[in-house]
Amino acid sequence: EKIITETKRVTNTYVKYHSEEKMAEIHSLENSKKNMIEFRIFVDMYSQEQS
Asked: Cβ distance 11 to 43 under 8 Å?
């Protein structure tokens, strides 16, 4: 339950601050690209656990 709540919070925060308008800006920053990849891996793992 705690993990689900935390995942929702992280996801909502991520979506809020990384909207499509900011994608070009994000992709210009190497560190943000790294964070993006890590976040996608996290979501993929979480999705697999739920199915």
From this structure: yes
